[in-house]
Amino acid sequence: MLFGMILLLAFVCGYLIPWWAACALAFIAAIILGRTSRQAFWSGFGGLAIAWAALALLKSIPNDHLLATRVAQVFHLKYWWAMLAVTVLIGGVVGGFSALSGLLVKKVFENS
Prior knowledge:
α4 (66-74) packs across α5 (80-111). The longest helix is centred in the C-terminal third of the chain and has 32 residues, at 80-111. The protein contains five helices and no strands. It is mainly alpha-helical. It is 83% helix and 0% strand. The protein has helices spanning 2-16, 21-33, 37-60, 66-74, 80-111.
């Protein structure tokens, strides 16, 4: 449930609001739906990683990966898909830590 919520929110906010808002939404979703630390981290990681991969591909495929290839060259990567992999990894880590932070904040206030 948490994974699906984060995935949906991250995908929708990718079109409407800045990129960092997905992290705030993962944080809030983990406060509401999170149960364990492992579940929160991996749900946040997977949800944001998949959403960012889908958003990047939806924007990159129509122009035949031209911009992605040029950005990859700036970072000394040979292929556009390597830039996509770096993007997905960064998004996943940020989402995972955001959701984990949300769950830990929830646990602090539950134990008080």
